[in-house]
Amino acid sequence: MANIKSAVKRIRVSERKAAVNKIRKSEIKTYIKRFDIALENNNTDEARELLKTIDKKLKKAALKNTVHKNAASRKVSKLTKRLNDKVNEAV
Q: How far is CA 14 from CA 2, 23, 24, 67, in A?
């Protein structure tokens, strides 16, 4: 345990920020799981709406440095490709 007052405060701040980051990442993962289920059930309309939400949340997380911006972009791109493949497969 730190003895210096500022170090103790930094520990508390970093714990709070880690908790917020964990919540953000968990929420994104939950939306991705819902997206996967929607694709499995051939529910492309719901998947499109979820993709918009995932995109928005990932960009916000990237802005707050919870995830790297390239990682966020890569995930959105991967999900979009999966959605487009599913739509084209149905046609």
A: 14, 14, 15, 16
Summarize pLDDT for 17-55 with one digit per residue, the tens: 999 999 999 999 999 999 999 999 999 999 999 999 999
Neighbour count for residue 74 (Cβ, 10 Å): 13
Q: Which residues contact 2 (CB under 8 A, 6 or more apart)?
A: 8, 10, 11
Per the structure, how many domains does the chain have? 1
Which structural domain, as residue segments, surrounds residue 36?
27-90
- Residue 26, number of CB atoms within 10 A of its CB: 10
Domain presence at residue 21: no
pTM value is 0.88
CA distance 75 to 5: 40
Nearest-angstrom CA–CA distance, 25 and 22? 5
Residue 42 has φ and ψ, to the nearest 5°, of: 55, 30
